[in-house]
């Protein structure tokens, strides 16, 4: 357990990992987090207060008492609240600096399936975080499954939906995402950045046609995929309304095992009943027997089996969310004020990034 409540080697190491005291002082002033001392001596002490309130789990009243006892700051809980609220942009910027460092060091970390050399695989997903009063926040994250660490993340109100292009990706990245992400604009913007999306779809996720602009017959395609043991076809991504140049993509059907298909059908029925519907579209049942993927990866660089193998890496980002929520208690946001909530959330994220940094450094040494 890292000690952040007093003068310790652990705290000195954290400060150095974030660029040192002078760098923290400069960035805090740049983002308006630390302009005058007013009971908090410097930016490093302000950062320590943020971490004690966030991942440290202290209430504002307990934080004020602990900080005074440890000689970190002698101010009221209301004063600490205002200082932490004002540090939200700074904490977000510190997280951004850590992500920049991770991307510079990591580079391309996953081998592309085929003659394309090495390409980075990035998993995009989001997770909801509850706050008081029924308010929800959304953590949008990009995860490197080979380096086993986050490469980008941002918090937004839950009303900001999932978008494939919300977080920065690099040219030649392979971007994996679940069925909540296949949206025409997000897919188009990702492709325009010269990255290749590989996303799961359902029959009603997006508007797809065949090469001749005919709507897809999903029942026939599912029957064909079952008979052939899979299906790989060229399609065009379109948008129902507005100007949108069709995008050439591949639609891949990979049959599930009998057990997996049965489980998927059961989930589809449960979801249907939860919506108080007595009937279910037969296309939903038919597609439940297949893993259906949409991608721009070329056929000669990625077979259907390879596409399925890549997509199955996606579970790793779920484990990253679980670690942050269960081990770091990120699912227990106590703040209702938006700026205080952002400070609390980004303090947790910063702690998670520092932990990943330490763990990855330790993995470099033979035990």
Average pLDDT works out at 89
Strand order of the largest sheet: 3-2-1-4-5-9-8-7-6
Number of helices: 13
What distance separates the N and C termini? 20 Å
Helicity level:
40-55%
Order of helices and strands: HHHHHHEEEEHEEHEEHHEHHH
Are there runs of 5+ residues with pLDDT below 50, and where?
108-112
Q: Which short descriptors sum up this protein?
A:
9 strands; 367 residues; alpha+beta; nine-stranded mixed sheet
Fold and architecture overview:
With 367 residues, the protein is an alpha+beta fold. It has 2 domains: 9-92 and 335-363, no CATH class; 120-320, no CATH class. 43% of the residues lie in helices and 17% in strands. It is built from 13 helices and 9 strands. The chain has helices spanning 9-17, 21-30, 43-53, 60-70, 77-85, 88-106, 184-192, 218-228, 258-274, 282-287, 304-311, 315-327, 338-363, and strands at 121-130, 136-144, 149-157, 174-177, 196-200, 207-209, 231-238, 247-255, 290-295. It has a 9-stranded mixed beta sheet with strand order 3-2-1-4-5-9-8-7-6, with helices on both faces. The chain is elongated, with a radius of gyration of 24 Å. The protein starts with 8 loop residues before the first helix and ends with a helix. Residues 108-112 have low confidence and may be disordered.
């Amino acid at each position: 357990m890292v000690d952040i409540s007093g003068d310790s080697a652990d705290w000195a190491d954290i400060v150095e990992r974030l660029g040192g005291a002078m760098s923290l002082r400069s960035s805090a002033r740049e983002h308006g987090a630390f302009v005058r001392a007013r009971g908090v001596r410097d930016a490093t002490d302000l950062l320590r207060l943020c971490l004690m309130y966030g991942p440290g789990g202290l209430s504002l009243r307990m934080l004020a008492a602990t900080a005074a006892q440890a000689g970190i700051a002698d101010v009221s809980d209301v004063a600490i609240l205002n200082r932490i609220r004002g540090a939200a942009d700074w904490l977000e910027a510190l997280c951004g600096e850590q992500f920049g460092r991770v991307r510079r060091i990591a580079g391309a970390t996953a081998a592309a399936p085929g003659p394309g050399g090495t390409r980075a695989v990035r998993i995009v997903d989001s997770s909801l975080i509850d706050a008081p009063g029924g308010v929800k926040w959304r953590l949008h994250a990009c995860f490197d499954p080979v380096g086993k660490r986050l490469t980008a993340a941002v918090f937004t109100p839950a009303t900001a939906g999932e978008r494939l292009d919300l977080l920065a990706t690099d040219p030649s990245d392979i971007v994996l995402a679940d069925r909540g992400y296949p949206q025409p604009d997000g897919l188009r913007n990702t492709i325009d950045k010269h990255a290749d999306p590989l996303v799961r779809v359902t029959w009603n996720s997006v508007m797809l046609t065949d090469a001749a602009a005919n709507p897809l017959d999903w029942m026939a395609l599912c029957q064909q995929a079952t008979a052939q043991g899979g299906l790989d076809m060229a399609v065009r991504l379109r948008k129902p309304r507005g100007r949108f140049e069709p995008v050439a993509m591949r639609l891949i059907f990979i049959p599930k095992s009998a057990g997996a298909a049965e489980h998927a059908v059961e989930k589809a029925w449960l979801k249907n009943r939860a919506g108080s519907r007595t009937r279910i579209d037969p296309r939903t049942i038919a597609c439940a027997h297949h893993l259906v993927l949409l991608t721009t990866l070329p056929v000669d660089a990625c077979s259907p089996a390879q596409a399925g193998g890549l997509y199955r890496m996606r579970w790793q980002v779920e484990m990253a969310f679980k670690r942050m929520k269960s081990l770091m208690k990120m699912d227990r946001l106590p703040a209702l004020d938006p700026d205080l909530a952002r400070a609390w959330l980004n303090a947790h994220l910063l702690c998670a990034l520092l932990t990943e940094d330490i763990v990855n450094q330790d993995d470099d040494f033979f035990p």
